[in-house]
Amino acid sequence: MNFEFGEDQNLVRDQARGFLTDNCPPAVVRRVLEGDELYAADLWQQIVEMGWTATVIPEEYGGLGMSYLELVVIAEELGRACAPVPFSSSVYLATEAILAAGTQAQKEKWLPKLAAGEVIGTLAYVEGAGETSAASLGCSVSDGKLSGSKAVVADAQIAQVMIVAAKSDSGDGASLYIVPTDAGVSCEALNTLDPSRNHANVTFDGASAELLGNEGEGWALLESTLNRAAILFAWEQLGGAESCLEMAKEYAMGRYAFGRPIASYQAIKHKLADMYVKNTLARGNVYYGAWALNTDADELPLAAATARVGSIQAYYYAAKENIQTHGGMGYTWEFDCQFYYRRSKVLALEIGSEAVWQDKLIDASAHADVA
Amino acid sequence: MDFEDTKEEAAFREEARTWLEANVPSEDEMAGMDGMARAKFWQKRKYDAGWACIRWPKEFGGRDANAIQQVILNQEEAKVDAPETGVFSIGQGMAAPTLMTWADEEAKQRFIPRLASGEDIWCQLFSEPAGGSDLAALRTKAEKDGDDWIINGQKIWTSGAHYSDWGILVVRTDPNVPKHKGLSYFYLNMKSPGVEIKPIKQISGDANFNEVYFTDVRIPDSQRLGEVGQGWQVSLTTLMNERASIGAGGGGVKFNTVKQAAESVQIDGRPAIEDKQVRAKLADWYVQEAGLKYTIYRTLSALSRGEIPGPENSIGKLVGAKKTQDMASFAMDLLEQQGIVRDRKTDEAFAALFQDAYMSVPGLRIAGGTDEIMANIIAERVLGLPQEPRMDKGIPFTEVPTGSN
């Protein structure tokens, strides 16, 4: 049994943590949260230079050809730092979709650019409040031209390419399309829960759209892309939850009330113990997710849903109880607790809510050896 | 990252499997034996072949195996239909490590091999009516009389006292010093005159525990472990080994059984498993169950590499017992009014499975460290948070405030 990371991944983790401690301190998150920047472009450029966007892209397409075990430890560190960058959109979603279903030509065209950070990508499939389904899609493609609109697309305004779910040319169900954003694509910026990230509604008016994967099989491809992304999101979410536990612990040790540290009161101790328990269980599940992703295991759908639900719950609990542990100061704009409270919810809603993934988990459990 | 055995582990697994398959007792061999006799029969056979208590030194009947080898043996033994040997767990899991650390050579040679072979069964006489979570508040007293000690008082929650040969015992030898300093640690023959054992009937209807009364029980001073007044320190050796040995329990109420229940009944004319709220709850329990499983895998990986596992495993009992309670309760809700029935002899699907678990889990949430104590342990020993201020520090035990009990 070797259910643990090796030296290679530990090295990547140490480097990533050191890099983000230096280059993505809370002041950077705050700068984007409070200012007009859509993302921390300077930090993004450094991340690109570190090669993180190229991690799992094969060398023949300009990538580093490393494994998903390296990518998940990077995801955890980005979550820990609450980094205000389009990593999830570009790496977990757009890159993954092209890796999974792109033709040779599509891979050659897009992957080197995604690896080198010349292009930021994202995925657009949601069209409004509630669940979007293959049947409910309003976007459609005719003669290679995409029309319609998508809602609340992460990093839409900074993406040069989008993977879009739309009704296909032949009317034969849903397909995925690669859509460059240089013509026929307009964005309407949105006020959101987490201004350290950016989201927009997107309107397509005859944008050029190239089929990705087989026509009519787009929804299945979308689902499998979301499954893979869910594991990477879950690692990022766990990183955030761990940060919350560390912040809460540090504050509780230093804050005195009635003559002693609040960390000595059972009400606080048990709260932090609960955070630890939730994070530890979530960690077990994202480990399994990492293994499934790395080996492309049959159990991936179940592992993904399990990792996703566990991390959503752990991060939500840690983020809200971190504010609670900080008392009144935790509720102030000045304190950093808000970063995690905002980000935990945004990450919980992108790519499908807790309820959506609970539902997928039960579906997937029917096909797995659940012992 | 993989789930495979190393070469050495695979070889050990093969060796263990081969021996187990060839030696697990057949029904014929054990005809007419009760559970205890079967347990002793199997344990002795394992001992004679060097497959009992394999982590112990060879001189005590073990084979100096490492932790991962023990895990592999347990996994393989679970696959063959071997007799249940839980009656030995307190003696082997708690008394033996304490004896190995604190007993003199003669006592080690006399007792430890007999613990490994299953010839002797031991129980643990720690908890008292006045000292559960606050174990060191115990009041059973020992007074010196020549070369003996005279014991008077009462212990409680003693598993297996009625069939045990020996017991490990913590008592107060000096009430006039602060409470942790006035304790001493002994072992005694459970057949000693003055020892009286009364079973405690639990809310489940079973009686797994006992009250044990001591009336002028004599214990020779030679059966003391550690110095007089050092009993707390000796107890910690025992307790460190306790929480590892109490699992989540719950007798078969798992994600899969509750899911089966949800597939077998209807809500609004549709299978309950199609109901979104039912699915959400089931998913949450699966997440916990899988999270525990993979946390254990991480622990095993650390063992496999020869490392000492981190504290992750301390969460098992805390999470597992509560989860089982909630799942049992929910599964009964799914059965609606039928859930009221608790009859092990009925032909109904699930018989008394959920009802029995519902009635037994409250005990699991308390035994071996309550949920609250487990949370304190995580907070203090894992996260490093400070202890609460205490009212009993630095004052003689006799001056510590007490309630009426």
Description:
The complex is a heterodimer of chains A (about 375) and B (about 400). With about 375 residues, chain A is α+β, with helices and mostly antiparallel strands. Helix content of chain A is about 55%, strand content about 15%. Chain A has helices at about 5-25, 25-35, 40-50, 70-80, 85-100, 105-115, 220-255, 265-295, 300-325, 335-350, 355-365, and strands at about 120-125, 140, 145-155, 160-165, 175-180, 185-190, 200-210, 210, 255, 260. In chain A, strands 1-4-5-8 form a four-stranded mixed β-sheet. Chain A has a four-stranded antiparallel β-sheet with strand order 2-3-7-6, with no helix packed on it. Chain B has about 400 residues and is α+β, with helices and mostly antiparallel strands. Chain B has three domains: about 5-115, Acyl-CoA dehydrogenase/oxidase, N-terminal domain (Butyryl-Coa Dehydrogenase, subunit A, domain 1, Orthogonal Bundle); about 120-230, Beta Barrel (Butyryl-CoA Dehydrogenase, subunit A, domain 2); about 245-365, Butyryl-CoA Dehydrogenase, subunit A, domain 3 (Up-down Bundle). In chain B, about 40% of the residues lie in helices and about 15% in strands. Chain B has helices at about 5-25, 35-50, 65-80, 90-100, 105-115, 230-240, 255-265, 275-305, 315-335, 355-365, 370-380, and strands at about 120-125, 140-145, 150-155, 165-170, 185-190, 195-200, 210-220, 225, 265, 270. In chain B, strand 6 (about 195-200) and strand 7 form a beta hairpin. Chain B is globular. In chain B, about 35% of the residues are buried. Residues about 245-250 of chain B have low confidence and may be disordered. Classes of the chains: A alpha+beta (about 375), B alpha+beta (about 400). At the A-B interface, helix 7, strand 10, helix 8, helix 9 and helix 11 of A face helix 7, helix 8, helix 9 and helix 11 of B.
